[in-house]
Amino acid sequence: MQNNNVMLHSITPDELKELLREMIREEFQEINYEIQRVIGEDDLVSTGTAGKLLGVCSKQLRYLIQEGHFTVFHCALPKSRNQK
Fold first, then answer.
1. 72 within domain boundaries
2. How confident is the model over 22-58, as pLDDT tens digits?
3. Which terminus of the chain is less hemmed in, N or C, by CB atoms within 10 Å?
4. How many domains does the structure of the chain reveal?
5. How many Å is the Cα radius of gyration of the chain?
6. Domain region containing 39
7. What secondary structure does DSSP assign to 6-75, as a single string?
8. Cα(59)–Cα(77) distance, rounded to whole angstroms?
9. Is the pLDDT of residue 16 over 60?
10. Is residue 6 domain-resident?
11. Short-list 46, 37, 53, 36, CA closest to 72
């Protein structure tokens, strides 16, 4: 049945299982990437910005971080292609 863009193939249950797993794995990877991109854009702020948003000075923010009220991520930004 090729008129409706439907092609029938002989496939074993194990092959079908592996095919479905791969499709689902790829979809989850794409969803995970999008979630990380959105979270990264919306939730990561500098310590200065975090202090301003919370209305606290850097010493108070440091105390709140040490007490475990916030998670701090240290990341190095990738160098641009022009930088060496």
1. no
2. 999 898 888 877 766 665 555 556 777 777 777 888 8
3. C
4. 1
5. 24
6. 13-66
7. -------HHHHHHHHHHHHHHHHHHHHHHHHHHHHHHH---HHHHHHHHT--HHHHHHHHHTTSS-----
8. 25
9. yes
10. no
11. 46
